[in-house]
Amino acid sequence: MPYKHISVMKNEAIYYLNCKPGKIYVDCTLGGSGHSKVICEKIIPDGILIGIDQDKDAIKNAKKVLQPYCSKLHLFHDSFINLPAILSELNIPAVDGILLDLGLSLHQLESSGRGFSFKKDEPLDMRMNMESSVKAEDLINKMDEKGLKKIFREYGEERRARQIAQKIVRARKLKPITSSKQLSLIVCDAVGKKALFTQKIHPATRVFMALRIAVNSELEILDSFMEKVADFLQPGGRLCVISFHSLEDRIAKHRIKALERECVCPPDFPKCICSEKKVVHILTRKVVRPTKEEVEANPMARSAKLRACEKI
Ligand SMILES: C[S@@+](CC[C@H](N)C(=O)[O-])C[C@H]1O[C@@H](n2cnc3c(N)ncnc32)[C@H](O)[C@@H]1O
User: Fold this and answer.
1) pLDDT tens digits for range 155-200
2) 146 CA distance to ligand 1 centroid (A)?
3) Of 58, 109, 180, 199, which has the fewest CB atoms closer than 10 Å, so is most exposed?
4) Domain of residue 203, CATH code
5) Which residue, by CA, sits nearest to atom 14 of ligand 1?
């Protein structure tokens, strides 16, 4: 089956990455390799592309899609949190550009069979990396009500988190919750029939997103990566982050801002004692959003936000 994904803000990402022949780039989230393919076209014949994805399907696809374009291609089935080890394995101290295009690919949502979508009846798995140990099913059946409520409220910004967590705990006493359809029906039951007709989005949307974020520790991984990201860039190297969730964007924004901060001493200190230095220059003072045309052609792009910076 062909790997399905429509790359979001491709032109903008390539513009901010400033891809040039002979340079070294990392695509931390290969997905369908849409961004990577354009990067390859810009950096050949001598440029190097390091492609990472924690989903094996993305790596399998990248071998087919990218190998004909780029002779200096290195693919890693791994989490981008392990970029330092990957760079040291390749003997590359720092790179010219890093791209993060966060979230899920269309392939994962629609055809991976891993229960990412409430529209399907699939096993409740939701792991991007099939080698990791915790599945959505484990959280849904084992986590206490308070924990579930916290996930739905914090990661899903779900107003009815308490009712939904309560319903889940009651339902699993009768029978384990093992499929996406089963969970979706429980959520619909918890929010009531009225919500089905009055809400703009399906009532299970936020619960499924929250659960996926928790299963894959997406926010914790992004935050730790962003804290160190400047160490992996050469001076003049660029970082570009595309996010689809307000909490992801908040992490990207704060971490990039922190890298741009100079002295953090209290204003009444006569002299600087912190020795903090500005590490990056922000390229996107205002967050960049997809064009109206892109959103019309691909409604899944509507929540995308892009931030970029350059290492000094
Ligand atoms: C939105 S898709 C990327 C799409 C890609 N830019 C394209 O143009 O086709 C996000 C991808 O990031 C991967 N991913 C998410 N978190 C990751 C992590 N911590 N490490 C590696 N890959 C990750 C997912 O498995 C998924 O394939």
Assistant:
1) 999 999 999 999 999 999 999 999 999 999 999 999 887 776 777 7
2) 30
3) 199
4) 1.10.150.170
5) 29
Q: What is the pTM of this model?
A: 0.95
Which residue, 173, 252, 172, 247, is CA-closest to 206? Answer: 247
Instruction: Return the ligand 1 atom nearest residue 225 CA.
Output: 19
Quick one: 175 and 228 in the same domain? no
Give the pocket of ligand 1 (CB within 6 Å). Answer: 5, 7, 28-29, 31-35, 52-55, 58, 79-81, 101, 103-105, 128, 221
Those residues whose C-beta lies under 8 Å from the C-beta of residue 223, and which sit 6 or more positions away, are: 251, 255
Coil, strand or helix at 286: coil
**pLDDT tens figures, 87-118:** 999 999 999 999 999 999 999 999 999 999 99
Residue 173: give the domain boundaries: 133-215
